[in-house]
């Protein structure tokens, strides 16, 4: 059987890298013309949600004003209403995994970006998440990944939550990419995850255990570099 040790961690980072590729495909990282062109869009466009000013977002994220302008141009082109819903996320991932079912993983990812829990991702939500993923410290990025796994947001990861995540990853890419994988592969990965992460063996993984264990894993640390210098 193919050794997929670490899939439960690295899959998050790899799939997020694919998410960045989707943005590139949509032209979100292409240069724009004038310095003030996107600022004008803020004033003239009729959208359901108007984002914060560029100056404010520059203060709150690790992007420059010019980078924010490029991101907003692409975001507005793809989402004229000013917000992204869960169906948009599902459409993006279905394009990359046409032979699998990516809907549940897209749901979990959408939940991680929808920090206000209002059923939509605004431009602010979008750039706050990207700022962490692309420009955040190791701790910032690991905190973001932990939040993705902590489905009910109670501050710890249970085996049930990790199994839901692993099943979604397996449905998205495992069955079509690794057809020889056994049906109990997600359960095996959950057990492997807890053997590594659950340091005090109390049946849950805390953020402290998660970050400490990840930092000791060379493969995970190397995967973090996938996002350096993306834009």
From TrEMBL:
UniProt name for this protein: Potassium voltage-gated channel interacting protein 2
Keywords, comma-separated and alphabetical: Calcium, Cell membrane, Ion channel, Ion transport, Membrane, Metal-binding, Potassium, Potassium channel, Potassium transport, Repeat, Transport, Voltage-gated channel
Major place of residence: membrane
A GO cellular component annotation in the UniProt record: voltage-gated potassium channel complex
SUPFAM superfamilies registered for this protein in UniProt: EF-hand (SSF47473)
UniProt GO BP: regulation of potassium ion transmembrane transport
PANTHER family per UniProt: CALCIUM BINDING PROTEINS, KV CHANNEL-INTERACTING PROTEIN 2
Domain EF-hand: residue ranges: 101-136, 137-172, 185-220
Compartments where found: Cell membrane
Family note: Belongs to the recoverin family.
This protein's record includes keyword Metal-binding: yes
Database matches in PROSITE patterns: EF_HAND_1 (PS00018), EF_HAND_2 (PS50222)
């Amino acid at each position: 059987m193919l050794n997929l040790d670490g899939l439960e961690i690295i899959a998050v980072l790899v799939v997020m890298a694919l998410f960045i590729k989707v943005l590139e495909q949509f032209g979100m990282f292409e240069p724009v013309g004038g310095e003030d062109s996107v600022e004008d869009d803020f004033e003239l466009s009729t959208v359901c949600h108007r984002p914060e000013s560029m100056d404010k977002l520059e203060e709150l994220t690790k992007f420059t004003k010019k980078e924010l302008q490029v991101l907003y141009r692409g975001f507005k082109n793809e989402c004229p209403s000013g917000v992204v819903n869960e169906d948009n996320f599902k459409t993006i991932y279905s394009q990359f995994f046409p032979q699998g079912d990516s809907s549940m993983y897209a749901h979990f990812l959408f939940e991680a970006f929808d920090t206000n829990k209002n059923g939509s991702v605004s431009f602010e939500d979008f750039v706050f998440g990207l700022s962490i993923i692309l420009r955040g410290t190791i701790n910032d990025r690991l905190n973001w990944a932990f939040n993705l796994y902590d489905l009910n947001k109670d501050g710890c990861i249970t085996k049930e939550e990790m199994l839901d995540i692993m099943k979604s990853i397996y449905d998205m890419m495992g069955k079509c990419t690794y057809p020889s994988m056994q049906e109990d592969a997600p359960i095996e990965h959950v057990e492997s995850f807890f053997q590594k992460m659950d340091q005090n063996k109390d049946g849950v993984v805390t953020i402290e255990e998660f970050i400490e264990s990840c930092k000791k894993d060379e493969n995970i640390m190397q995967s973090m570099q996938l996002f350096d210098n993306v834009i």
